[in-house]
Amino acid sequence: MKKYIALWAVCALFSCKDAKKEDASSASKEMAKPEVKLYTFSGGTVLVNNLELFSQDTTYHGQSKEFADAFYVISHPKGNLMWDAGLPEGLIGLPEPFTDPSGAFTVSRKDSVLAQLASIDMIPSDIDYIALSHTHFDHTGHAEKIKNASWLVQEAEYDFVTSEAMQKSNADIYNAVNDLTKVQKLNGDHDVFGDGKVVIKSMPGHTPGHQVLYLELADHGPLLLTGDLYHLYENREHKRIPIFNYDVEQTMESMADFEKIVVEKGAKVYLQHAKGDFDKLPQAPNYLK
Q1: N or C, which terminus of the chain has less Cβ within 10 Å?
Q2: How many domains, the chain?
Q3: Does residue 28 form part of some domain?
Q4: In angstroms, rounded to a whole number, what is the distance separating the alpha carbons of residues 219 and 278?
Q5: CB 183 within 8 A of CB 216
Q6: Is residue 30 part of a domain?
Q7: Closest CA to 139 of 225, 76, 74, 55
Q8: Is the residue at 112 inside a domain?
């Protein structure tokens, strides 16, 4: 009987050790599990020479302001998403910043997406998805360098930018995206990787299919990248809308929906054109997690 008891004790001891090993192994695997990372890049600089364009009234009359023009890579265990694409790469290497014919904007860009991706050991083919907050020139700059990625675009935005009217009236905007042939059209919110950590939120108004990006990061917590829903802190505070927005009423509705998400999720907000918010985020190759 004593032999059986001793044998049971030995078996129990080794079973316990095995269980501890399994627990340790599981914990190790959990710790080694890849995290969602947010890399922030400069897609150039926009000097707004006529800030009055960014309100329906004369609040900003006679003012100018320098905007950041960020783009981002979100690295997820299931793939990589690029959010926005900065200013056109044709600006790189120009001896002076370029001012558009109206004089409203002076723009510049210092570095290419190839060089910028290389800083985080990526190349364009590593990007599985590209999503643009909208298709204005300062958000589509290097989009066609990522042409093998699936383009996640609201159907309303796709129809807008590829329309015959757009091709005739503003061919540059159409040509910035017309080589993106792997198109996934969206009609509303879209959970990119299916786990609630990277979610495109439909927020029309600035353009017909404008969208923002919601992220849940392990350390930082929930955050929202605004696209061009808001350009300025004052515009968010006072609900001011640029005179060139596609639909003012839709924009107001999107602003209300956006602020509900902020409250419900306790999300931090980053205005993509605000230099202050751009500077708060670690610049690649550093990242937020």
Answers
A1: N
A2: 1
A3: no
A4: 19
A5: no
A6: no
A7: 225
A8: yes
Q: Is pLDDT of 5 > 80?
A: no
In DSSP notation, 65-106 reads EEEEEEEEEEEETTEEEEE---S-GGGTT-SS-EE-TTSSEE
More confident residue, 166 or 23: 166
Q: What was the pLDDT predicted at 33?
A: 52
Which residues have CB under 8 Å from 109's CB, separation 6+?
A: 43, 44, 45, 69, 86, 87, 88, 89, 91, 92, 141
Residues 206-228 have pLDDT tens digits of 999 999 999 999 999 999 999 99
Beta bridge partners of 288: 38
Q: DSSP secondary structure string, 150-203?
A: EEEEEHHHHHHHTSHHHHHH-HHHHHTTTT--SEEEESS-EESSSSSSEEEEE-
* Measured CA angle at 211 (ends 245, 153), to 5 deg: 110
Q: Tell me the pLDDT tens digit for each residue of 31-80.
A: 445 689 999 999 999 999 999 999 999 999 999 999 999 999 999 999 99
Question: Is the pLDDT confidence value at 15 over 90?
Answer: no
Let me know the angle formed at the C-alpha of 34 by 266 and 17, rounded to the nearest 5 degrees: 110
Q: pTM for the complete prediction? A: 0.88
Return the sign of the alpha-carbon dihedral for residues 270, 272, 276, 277.
positive
* Among 185, 159, 162, residue whose Cα is nearest residue 173: 162
Handedness of CA 144, 146, 149, 153 (dihedral sign): negative
Enclosing domain of residue 137 = 36-280
- Answer yes or no: is 155 within a domain: yes
Phi, then psi, of 132 in degrees rounded to 5: -105, 135
Q: Which CATH number belongs to the domain containing residue 216 in this structure?
A: 3.60.15.10
